[in-house]
Design brief:
single chain, alpha/beta, five-stranded parallel β-sheet, 3 helices, globular
Length: 110
């Protein structure tokens, strides 16, 4: 089972296999729900079965947890490691997100 989470306030999901979330707090809740679903199958949540595809800027959804880099901050603070893909067009935001990903040796998908 692979759970794919698309975190973006504007762009539509790239295919029907993704779960769309628009706020940071919602993304954290969905990640936790995915973890529980995966555990029920007997698997351990890992970079093999959870993919988080992130934008950086949360636009009008900023008030619900901040920009999406906060998802990475939460993953780091809670010692989680999942596959990450970035689809942000914000070059400074991308660089900051990449720094967190590299520091934690998380799997980066292109």
């Amino acid at each position: 089972m692979i759970m794919k989470i698309w975190v973006d306030d504007v762009r539509p999901i790239p295919d029907k296999d993704y779960i769309l979330v628009k706020s940071t707090n919602e993304a954290i809740s969905i990640i936790q729900e995915c973890e529980e679903k995966i555990k029920k199958t007997g698997e351990v949540p890992s970079e093999q079965n959870i993919v988080i595809d992130l934008d950086h800027d949360s636009g009008d959804f900023y008030k619900d947890g901040g920009d999406y880099i906060r998802v990475l901050d939460w993953l780091e603070a809670t010692n989680r490691a999942y596959s990450i893909r970035l689809h942000t067009m914000n070059s400074v935001g991308r660089r900051n997100m990449m720094n967190i990903i590299k520091k934690n040796n998380w799997k980066l998908l292109y």
